[in-house]
Give the backbone structure.
Amino acid sequence: MTQRKPTRVLPIQEPPVLEQRLYWADNLCSPPNLLEKLSVDPTRDVRRKVALNPSTPLEVLKGMVRDSDSVIRLYVRVRLDSKSWRKVLRALR
């Protein structure tokens, strides 16, 4: 039997444990404000899932451009189209 992702967002317990943060970072139903919080999570695997999540807003991705993890920076670069990427680089100068 395969597991399905929920169709609605469930509340997160405070403080969220790593498994919860990983789940919500990867969940297409996660709200933008939660993805924004997870984009600065101390655990790089959580941030990587946020960078790859198609539901992550463009503004959150732009905030991840200078992440300390080179893989996350690569994911963000791939997610941003070349025109947006050039704008982000210009803004960082």
About this structure: The mean pLDDT is 85.
